[in-house]
Structure formats: structure tokens, C-alpha cells
Design brief:
Thioredoxin-like_sf; Arsenate reductase; alpha+beta; Glutaredoxin; 118 residues
Amino acid sequence: MMKKVFYLNTCDTCRKILAQFDLTDWELREIKKEPITKEELEEMHKKTKSYEALFSKKSTQIKLRGLDAKSLTEEDFKELLLDHYTFLKRPVFITDNNIFVGNDKNNVAALQEFFGVN
């Protein structure tokens, strides 16, 4: 069974979320050291049905590149996600049947339920 977590080591929020769970049998991927592959992005997309859902609109790269997030297409989101690790909304927990993207309250609550942690 696939069990992977994509996260960023320099992200305090990521570290806080990961610390809540027993990730012994999970593959941990630090996305700055080892960026996501095209295949992994496709796998995530299959579960979310949207590249935008995986895209962090808080990425500092948006401003640096002068991008207007509102005018981006799914294809743009896909290319940007593959181009720079900060565009991935983090952390991403993915299994054969589930995906949990980002650090908003609802997602963290869903993760806690998934892991059976309150």
C-alpha cells in the first residue's frame, strides 16, 4: 500500500502536523531535496481532480514571478507545480485511496480522524 507524505523541512506548520502522527511505515519526502515527479503529480491529480487544489497561492514565487493566480489555468498550475517545490500546498498525505492536501483546519481534522488521533 502506498503511504507518502510530501512536506518541507523549513515549514514549521508542516513539522507540527507531521509530529502529531505515527509515520513509521510512511515514506517521507522532503520536496526541496527531492521535488515531486510528474508521475506523483498525476497521482495526486487523479485524487483531487484539480491542479489548483494542490497549488499554494501563498507561494512567494507568485509575487517573484509576477503571476496573477486568478488568471492561471489548470495547465499553468500543473507546469508551476512541476517547476518549483514551493507551489505545492503542504503537507500532502497520500495513500491508495486518500489524499489530504494542505494545512487548513478541515484538512488537519480529517487527517487526525484518518490516523485515529484526537
